[in-house]
Protein: MoaB/Mog domain-containing protein
Organism: Cercophora scortea
Amino acid sequence: MFSRLSQVARHLSRPLPRPSHASPRTLLANNSNNIMASPAVTADERNSRTIHTAACLIIGDEVLGGKTKDTNSNFMAQWCFSLGINLKRIEVIADDESEIIEAVRRMSNGYDFVVTSGGIGPTHDDITYQSIAKAFGLPLVLHEETYALMKKMSTRPPDFNWEEDSAARRAKLRMAELPTDPSRDLAQQVIFPSKDLWVPVAVVNGNVHILPGVPRLFEKLLEGLKPSIVPRLLNPEGNSIFRVLVSTPLSESAVADYLTKLAARVEPRGVKVGSYPRWGKKRNTVTLVGKDKEFLDSIAPEVAQNVEGRVVAVEGEDDNLPDEAADE
């Protein structure tokens, strides 16, 4: 009896198993492995299917450190909205290989159209190409057309020796060594959206589009992608997402109850209701966003009446009007 009790006591006195504590880097790797093990979709399928959703990945220590202001994600958001693409996610991450690998795998798996910004220059911290290549098990291959265009169109320095093997030439070559799948058509993997730029857009895994972080280049190249993107939209003829703006003199708390009820009522019709304070201004903004323009236009007068405001074409257009005129 005492022997049995002693065994029980020893068993209860043993320390409980401690849960393992994986590092964030290990968790990222495990999560990435799970994503890669998900049902296979080929790169060619990703490259041709209808585009409903999008994600934007901003890569750069300088953004996270406050040195550079990110405007590319805002441009991407406006670009997607104008085309009727549902931008579902924007992330900003460091120039860190493991984070880039995890993020692009996850985004490629989860969204139809993915754009990255930053990290494709000639310096040591420009690791986007090599990280994305590693994410999908691809080699970095010198893209001869990119290199030829670089030599032809680059103007700095004017007397650069392209034939001599030098540290500067090797640095330039890094910008033409692209993640490449040798089993796929190269024309689907490298696009030149602008004829007056040598900078390409590398398309990896069928839907990850690698763009530079310089805003002027980012915007020009993204705009140049439209001809290849529009035919793959649900509504190639035009914008399938619309926004109605309602200017109101009331505070957010004053309209909260009505907007909560309105949101529940119109949600089945695919309409999202938003409320945005405009600090330092007399009027705030209520937004109605959806794909059924006729329905949005039909409920706009009711919304304007209930928030004691008016429908406007551009936010702030009635800021300088007298209060009485603005409320008419």
Summary: The chain is about 40% helix and 20% strand.
